[in-house]
Model the fold of this input.
Amino acid sequence: MSGIFYEQAIVIWSNGKSHTKSEIFLLCSEGKISIKNLQLQHTFARVYGDTGVVHGEGTAQITVVGEELPEQLRFLDVWADREGSWKIVSSHLYQVV
Done:
């Protein structure tokens, strides 16, 4: 997964907390972030030159530093063409209400 995130990428979780790429990979290596049973639905992408936007929803069992997030989530990922390949520069997960 490290290859798909840009070095300055940020992830904003549905609880409002955010982490940088380096923080995410440190927490993953320590077992403090866990994503299980990810199932995506209704996902679509749009490309605007060297930037892409991916919207979608799905279910997953996500735990971030001991806090379980809601299973039903929507997401918005922003991708950019960086260094000759597509990288996530920003990812935002939010709870379905």
About this structure: The CA atoms of residues 11 and 19 lie 5 Å apart. The chain has one helix and seven strands. The chain has a mean pLDDT of 90. The first helix runs from residue 21 to 29.
